[in-house]
Design goal:
alpha+beta, Fructose-1,6-Bisphosphatase, Chain A, domain 1, seven-stranded mixed sheet, globular
Length: 305
């Protein structure tokens, strides 16, 4: 299954690289304010889906642009796809973007591929068998003190994002680290963390397709992943932090006050009592009120070109 995922990701990367030669001619539309989609996102996604369902016609698909309209949503095997993570970077010719493909089997991510077409870097992982970049084994950073670490994150860009809360997080974290970076592709952020290029990662508002493959890369490289409270819900929780174990322990006290899963928060019960699918770090296509299902409803809504 990993080889099929690699084939699909490389095929999509070929589509992206060809389009990057003349990116100004690519048609662009806006899904939401500052949230763009291009014809290349759709073309890349289509070739991934065709490759995966060509090999496994009974599997399900959860993709950023087409949702769960392809394959079998009731399957135990669900492919989670981001055909072009870093679309805004791609539009501007800023070479930080990738293809992300993950396979969830009975609620657990078991295969992961992240392909960076601009550098021809291939990050892969199989559950229980380690993580690799270009066939070289990856391990998370060995740094033990947060003050020596370089973290990566993503900046809020949606109209409904809480900018003030994010600024407060930055005020707490920046003085305690060596550096903070915002590359613009969460999937690559996680791949770079797994490879030891960075030491930690945190972000809010991410969907399962943004992080599914990267999460397996990190855990197979020896890292930890959770929500801002440091606990298990993350894939469908819309808040995530990841790091090597020693750095993770130092990030939790800084991010926990901002977590919707923080039990010491006055509003935490309201956040936790509703959708529990994230409790296992998995994503369901059936939970009608989960963040994923809400995202799928938005994706299926008519959108202008």
């Amino acid at each position: 299954m990993l080889n099929v995922a690699i084939k699909a990701a490389r095929a999509a990367g070929g589509v992206i690289n060809r389009a990057a030669l003349d990116v100004e001619s690519v048609r662009i539309s806006e899904k939401n304010i500052n949230d763009f989609v291009t014809e290349i996102d759709h073309e890349s996604e289509q070739i991934i889906i065709e490759t995966l369902l060509g090999a496994y016609p009974d599997h399900g698909i959860l993709a950023e642009e087409s949702g769960s309209t392809h394959g079998s949503p009731s399957s135990d095997h669900i492919w989670i796809i981001d055909p072009l993570d870093g679309t805004t970077n791609f539009i501007h010719g800023f070479p930080i973007y990738c293809v992300s493909v993950a396979l969830q089997v009975r609620g657990k991510i078991e295969q992961a591929v992240i392909y960076d077409p601009t550098r021809n870097d291939l990050f892969t992982a199989t559950k229980g068998r380690g993580a690799f970049v270009n066939d070289r084994r990856m391990r998370v950073s060995k740094r033990t003190q947060l003050k020596d670490c370089m973290l990566s994150t993503g900046f809020p860009f949606r109209a409904e994002d809480d900018l003030e809360a994010y600024f407060n997080i930055l005020r707490d974290i920046i003085p305690k680290t060596s550096a903070l970076r915002r590359p613009g592709s969460a999937a690559l952020d996680l791949a770079y963390l797994a490879a030891g290029y960075t030491d930690g990662f945190f972000e809010t508002g991410l969907a399962p397709w943004d992080i599914a493959a990267g999460c397996l890369l990190v855990t197979e490289a020896g890292g930890l992943i959770g929500n801002y409270s440091g606990e298990a819900p993350y894939l469908d929780a819309q808040e995530i932090m990841a790091a090597s174990p020693k750095i993770y322990a130092q990030m939790v006290p800084l991010l926990k006050p901002y977590s919707k899963f923080n039990t010491s928060s006055n509003n935490s019960a309201d956040h936790i009592s509703g959708d529990r699918v994230a409790q296992t770090g998995t994503v369901s296509l059936k939970a009608s009120n989960s963040p994923t299902s809400m995202a799928l409803k938005k994706l299926r809504a008519p959108q202008g070109r």
